[in-house]
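Example record used in the benchmark description.
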Amino acid sequence: MAHDEHVVIAGAGLAGALLAVDLARMGYRVDLYERRPDPRQAGYIGGRSINLALSVRGLTALAEVGLDAPVLEDAIRMPGRMLHDAQGDLTFQAYSHDPADAINSVSRGGLNITLLDAADAEPNVAIHFDERCVDADLDETIAVFKNNATGEVTQVKADCIVGADGAFSAIRAPMMRTDRFDYSQTYLRHGYKELVIPPAIEIEGADPTKHDGFAIEPNALHIWPRGGSMMIALPNADKSFTCTLFWPFEGDHAFESIDPNDAASVRAFFTLHYPDAVPVMPTLTDDYSRNPVSSLVTVRCDPWHRNRTVLVGDAAHAIVPFFGQGMNAAFEDVRVLCSLLREDGGFDRVLPAYSEARKANADAIADMALDNFIEMRDTVADEEFLYRKRVEQALHGSMPERAQPLYNLVSFSNIPYDEAREKGRALGRIVARVAERLPRQEAALLTDDAWNERVVSIGRELLGA
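Model output (structure tokens):
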């Protein structure tokens, strides 16, 4: 169905490109503007294949435009966490009692290119690269762009403007100058730096046949929790891993504690704290010296629209990456916005409804992402935490509908984030009570079958099942 309405999208990243495809399929005329060069010609800016965790919410949005299956072809399933302790010993924690549940490691650059190709294939989409958004007139629905090469400034009139231009959105800036617009940005005391584990074939002494060409187990999200800091690693399709340090800026186990140009100190520190990682990181000292330390910000604002201008993704709700939901939440924004447009079709009614529907959910996942950071870095190796997780999985296996853990609700369902948080908290209270009535020390005296029977019996009593 063709529309007379013209939509301008600032930002051709993941959310903006997906939105362009969905709107075009609905018949809208779309102009998609991006400040960077075309990554299909210039190469994806961001270095090696930086990856993301794609889960059910993101896949559901991709399925709306038929792109879920193509994206999954190059994805790597991760059904759980692989924990690395300070001695290099490994512990695998499944994300779910159901082995079919998994998150998927995907290349940010590869996914962006897939979405851009899909947008380019739509006859009513025009993509403009090297065009930086510098301002917007919210009353007249005009977006202003400046060409990076020529400096030429262009004003583009539209029926709707969408800010998909990231945490430091230029479209959001004029909203912040209006009355009754709430905005906050908060930074963690931690930053992040990216490192690399190359394919096994590039590592001296590694066995390329052991993990199908990967240096370590590919079907897991690897975590080196160190209490207050951590390193993680996600697999890439080229059989490398993208590693990310999440360390405080200041302190002992912190970025300030190591001179990035002192290769001996860097290697000594990693040998002490990440002993099993050092042998599979031949470019460690060069990567640590070369790659920058970046900040982690949470952005909240309200409302997400002004007149016929609206925000999606990080422009509305940048979150820290510790629940793997930044991209998934942005894709869910797109799905909800387009669903409302299909039902109603009018921007004047849809944009306020979208803003109201998504705000509480964005706040919920922002809070959960911060909470999950503490869990990942501090508690995943704690024996009491592991025991409660065992209880949780037993209850979920016995009562899959009544006892859904928070992680499952967030990553393996489309239940609204705020509802998922409340249900997850409720189950968490039940799990704590079960663990109190059948403590870990007592559980150690039981067979697995007897323990499971006791846990399920107590859980059913507490849940009234």
